[in-house]
Amino acid sequence: MPLPAKRINLLRGWPSPDLLPANLLSAATQRILTTRSVYTPILEYGPSHGHPTLRTGLAQWLGHHYRVEPDVNRICVTGGASQSIANILLSFTDPAYTRSVWMIAPCYYLACGIFEDAGFSGRLRATPEDEEGVDIEALEAKISALEKQEENVSSEKLFKSPGAYRKFYRHVIYAVPTSSNPSGKTMSLRRREQLVKLARKYDALIICDDVYDFLQWPLQGEPTVERPPEMRLPRLCDIDLAMGPAENDLEGFGHAISNGSFSKLVGPGIRTGWVEAWPKFIIGLGRTGATLSGGAPSQLSAAILGELLGTGELQAYVEDAVRPELQKRHRAMMAAVHEHVTPAGVELRESSLAGAATYGGYFVWLTPKNGLPSKLIADRAVEEENLVIGYGNMFEVHGDEASLGFGKDIRLCFAWEDVEEITEGVKRLGNLLRRMNENRAYYESLPQKGHDDSFVDSYK
Ligand SMILES: Cc1ncc(COP(=O)(O)O)c(C=O)c1O
């Protein structure tokens, strides 16, 4: 059988080149670099918490979206979600004090390396999702078992000092509560509240990658600018704020932060995001050594984005271009899945949020019923169909693969390829699965290649 000539990539989790707003960015850059009094503070070292126009614009935008009081003091500009996690870990954890990083799994796999680089190799622990986003009982059982086991472990010799402006947390919990990468699930309000309470009890910091919150749409009908409540559930940081200071946190650092990013709204190359958290936490984050020395990350990009938020162009772009386009691609993928993959036997979730009719983010998570290893399916997809897909082992928690495995699952991205390629790619996957079902013995006899993450850098 001849290999299809065109490679289709349903693994790559990047925005489509059709959705990169080069013209908007170019015009905004021209505007802010014309006048000396405007460009000087942009091109010099900037304040540690980020360019003021972006902080103000974000406070307004986020306040409106989540229905919270805008508060600039709760916002810090970052170099995007990934760099932001690294800075948070530098300032608020010490591997000699912080016991463990709890990763809701399957997880955004490139986050593992950030935690490992911060001294947590071998201490990342997988904790399962459930239908509502996180299995709270399982997580509590695991944390309390670890606390018992490490009761007598000394934390006296720390590697660093938190100083006056920061604190070290005893645990970190990493979550993507809305339209998760990779499962597509959105955590219910009930689970969000339970998770914040749990974090307060065990002095954990919940780092929420809220990078898909603005990218949600209804399953039926067009997306509306005024979103229904199920598409703007409170972030965990909003719930934490509403609960007031916890008993074990009288200084008010809080237990949940929102890690936002412009990567999926504008383009990853803009390398800018934000953290929203308690003001005390924001002050501490601004005191990360590299930030004190260099100023807030991504200063010029931040000023460009601040300009676009100020004029309303960025918000309009997300509403008029990004959301409808992702909705269109998601619909195309689901239609193709139902036509070509469902007949071969597969389990999947229609809605991000259980009990609602919404979807969001970039990804669909599928479990073929044939039970074949998804690494084998992914390898055969490249060999026989010129199709690249994500396989479940990629999304296991580094060092804790044995406790939660995803060797039978597949992740498909609907953001990178356009509608025609998405439809064709899913059709190729359906054809492959059918062939594999019919010739199971042959496929099982093929030599299986192990999981290899040397190429993942380019796929997110
Ligand atoms: C959950 C999650 N967090 C973080 C990132 C990377 O974010 P950034 O580009 O802002 O570093 C991604 C990218 O796919 C992601 O899916």
UniProtKB/TrEMBL annotation:
Organism encoding this protein: Stachybotrys elegans
Keyword Oxidoreductase (UniProt): no
Keyword Signal: no
Name listed for the protein in its UniProt record: Aspartate/tyrosine/aromatic aminotransferase
Residue stretches making up the Aminotransferase class I/classII large domain: 41-429
Keywords: Aminotransferase, Coiled coil, Transferase
SUPFAM superfamilies: PLP-dependent transferases
GO molecular function: 2-aminoadipate transaminase activity; pyridoxal phosphate binding
Coiled coil: 129-156
